[in-house]
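Um, can you check?
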Amino acid sequence: MPIHNHSNDQLMTMLHNIMNHNNRAEADVKKIQLYSVWELRNQAFCSGKNIKTITADGVLSAFRYKVGDGGIANAAKRQLILDHILEAPIPPTVDMEYTMKWGEPKSTERKNQLIRTLKGLISGVNKRNYSRDKFLRAKAHWEEDLTYLEEQSYCYH
């Protein structure tokens, strides 16, 4: 089946397979093809066309970023997902306004939105004064990933 016929959820599975592919050159070609499909869908969605959204309640969950118990314990794997969030066109997610607020790939706006999101998640745990281990582990992962993002010096536009 041609790549443009796949659902956004299927494309996300493909992206995760690409992340784990051992042939980087081949993986990069596939990633470019996948990103081009999302770019077209994102443009259509953000211009008001009726495009099916990915099954997720936000960008982090759309990209299958998970922390804490049952999440991704390996920091390098979580941070690889964050790198893809920074560089990929956002697939149609939630609604047009939500998708648009994430800005363009590799933009300062995108990085700032990702940082604000992680800070908001950390703040939510702090405000509720959760002390259960599962919340503390999730918070520790978010803090570790926030530090990673803040230390990155990608070329943003």
The chain has one domain: 3-151. The longest helix spans residues 24-46.
